[in-house]
Amino acid sequence: MSLAKSIRALERDTYDLAGSGGAGLSELLSSAFSTPLEASEPLRITLVVGGGKKVRGAYGETLMRDVCTALEKVSANP
Question: Based on the structure, what is the number of domains in the chain?
Answer without folding.
Answer: 1
